[in-house]
Write a structure and sequence with these properties.
By secondary structure, the chain is α+β, with helices and mostly antiparallel strands. The chain has one domain: Nuclear Transport Factor 2, Chain: A (Roll), CATH 3.10.450.50. The protein contains four helices and eight strands; from the N terminus they run ααββαββββββα. A hairpin with a 2-residue loop joins β3 and β4. It is globular and about 45 Å long.
Amino acid sequence: MTAPQKHTSPKQAAANKALLQWVFADLASGNGRPFLDLLAEEVVWHVEGSTAWSRSYRGKAAVKADLLKPLFEVLAGPNPLSVLRMIAEDDCVAVQARGNAVTRAGAPYCNSYCMIFRLQDGRVVEITEYADTALIERVLPYPAGVASVAG
């Protein structure tokens, strides 16, 4: 469950948005390092839906090992994300984005995302991700260690 929002000043909301704009500019060019650096050690990433990938990944190590590593083992290269819209309020920034990737099997993986980032002290502590789950089910194989669709 999401922690209650910490009300921040409009200046802080704008600073959080500017930080994510900078990180997503690098993601658009395929550079994920600034994104990883922005994640707090205790980050929780919720992938919504009922796919095999859908669950809460708790901690930066789990995000990297159980979500990002298996995903990038499936993709033929980076998944550059293009931001369509970004809205900041309180300690959250909502990002509407479009991916542009191809799997190693040659299938296009151009998912649409809405991600809600919660920041604390200049670090991302929580991400809630909404995406095209039908595309995920159709194109991405189950991550390692998952035998069936998560409930």
